[in-house]
Every structure is written in structure tokens, then in C-alpha cells.
Amino acid sequence: MNMMHIQKIAIVGAGGHGKVVLEALLAQQEMRTPITMYGWLDDVSERHGKAFCGYPIVGGRALFPQLKIENVAVIIALGDNAKRVEIAAEMNRFGIDAYTITHPSAVVSKSANIGKGCMIITRAVVHPDAIIGDHTIINTGAIVEHDNVIGSFCHIAPGVNLGGRVKIGDFTDVFTNATVLPDVTVGNHCVIGAGAVVLRDVPDYVTVVGNPARILKKE
Length: 219
Fold this sequence. Notes:
The chain is an alpha/beta fold. The protein contains three helices and 24 strands.
């Protein structure tokens, strides 16, 4: 009799976004996806051995070698793009697999290309031929239209609407309810403010806000 392999998943970040990711994982389990929650990882040692949302905080990143031995995949459930970069680099050093989580209520086209370690959250939509880089968050109700190209380590926040053929560079935050019009390119390391309406291309390392969006500052 063949036994189905159950993939064990650890979540880095026992906090608010971690709760959302856990809900997606549990919803996948309800759909009979062969995964199980291994536990939380948190670098605050005072939290180790305690429970969060009913699952143990088993330790911090010092456990990565053990996770590799036990074939545990990891999701980095942190909204801070730079922190995800740091942790992903450490995972790569130990050869730990990054798990991509997709809530069953999300709509993801079969022709979309989703990178490793991504989080596609409740009721998000990813349309045909969209490309999403590694460790990027497509948060609650966000719309990624056809032929979008979104970089790695981005955060597309709840309610964001990206028109067709939009390009978003690496390490960029697009905050809640922002809209980017079709064919617009947003650079690397940008911040698109909540509710902004982006009508034209945005260069690297800038923050834009307002309707229409204007440059607030350059990094």
C-alpha cells in the first residue's frame, strides 16, 4: 500500500501575517493538500516553547540545519521585504525548500508563473501569463492582471489593482488599495502609498503617493 508523503511546513514569523499564512495552510489541508504544520520559527528566544495560534514556537533560525535533515519546507511570513531577503539567503545556505502557499479562495491562472516562497492570500487574483518572482506576497483581494511581471521580495497589499502588462521591480511595496494603470512600470525598491493611482512609470528608489501619484521622496 502506497503511503502519501505529507510535506511538513514551518512558518517564520509568529505574528499578524503569520496568522494569515497559517489560515491559508489550514485551508489547503481542508482541500486535502498533503501538508502539515510543523511549527513556528521566531528568533525571540523568550517565545520558544510557547504556543501561537495553537501551534508550538519550536525555535529560531538556529534550527535550519535540523529542518533540512527532517525535510521541512519553510514559509517566511514577514511583511518586511528586507527581512525576507535575509532569511531566504540563510535558507539557501542550508538548502531548505521555500514553500509557496495559495489560499484555496484565490484565483490563479494555469498560465501564471509563481516563484518559490510566494504567498497568494485570500481572494487574490492572478490572471493569465502573469509572472511573480520569489518570496513575493500577493495579499488579500489583490488583483494581478494579465501579463504582469512582478519582481522578487515584493509586497502587493490588500485591495491593490494592477492593470494589464504592469511591471513591478524587486523589493517594492504597493500598499493597500493602490492602483497601477496598464502598461506602467514601477522600479526596484519603491513604495507606492496606500490609495495611490499611478498613471506613469516610476523610477527606482522612490516613494509615490496620491491621485494622481507624485514622488514624495527619493531614497
